[in-house]
Amino acid sequence: MEFTPHPGFVLWFTGLSGAGKTTLARAVEAELRARAMRVEVLDGDIVRQQLTRDLGFSKEDRDQNILRVGFVAQLLSRNQVAVLAAFISPYRDTRARVRAQTTHFIEVFVDAPLEVCAARDTKGLYARALAGEILHFTGISDPYEAPEAPEIHLRTDQLTVTECVQIILSALEARRLLPPAR
What we know:
Layout: E1 9-14, H1 21-34, E2 39-43, H2 44-50, H3 59-77, E3 82-86, H4 92-101, E4 105-111, H5 114-120, H6 125-130, E5 152-155, H7 161-174
Parallel strand pairs: 1-3, 1-4, 2-3, 4-5
Helix pairs in contact: 1-7, 3-4
């Protein structure tokens, strides 16, 4: 049976800072490019510098940030682009709103315990948040609402990057959203 590509999809990587969202998105990007797919990575840090630098970190601003990114993801995915969105996106209701407006939305819960995320933190953000120097830090002074039923749940403290990528690729293949590896 020949593979017929879908009009694009959105892999929405959500999880705490340091859980591995960007690392996994970049690793999946390389695999998709190797399969000649059109791919765009939307990364929280980069988007904050370019598209949403006018927003702060209140709940309202975080929601607006995610909704703007969701709109961009929707535009790209409907034009046959595989979108890999790596955002903390701490609120379930906002992720649900993005899901509702996006075709082929796949939520990837990048899950690691807070202690593991803090230990991985090369920028020292968790230490600063715990010291009260950073306000509205997800997982410390602001909540993170874990997905209740993500399509893909990855425990990055228990799986390697390679194992996580294989789980994602297998899920995409099962949904016929990318061609099988040759």
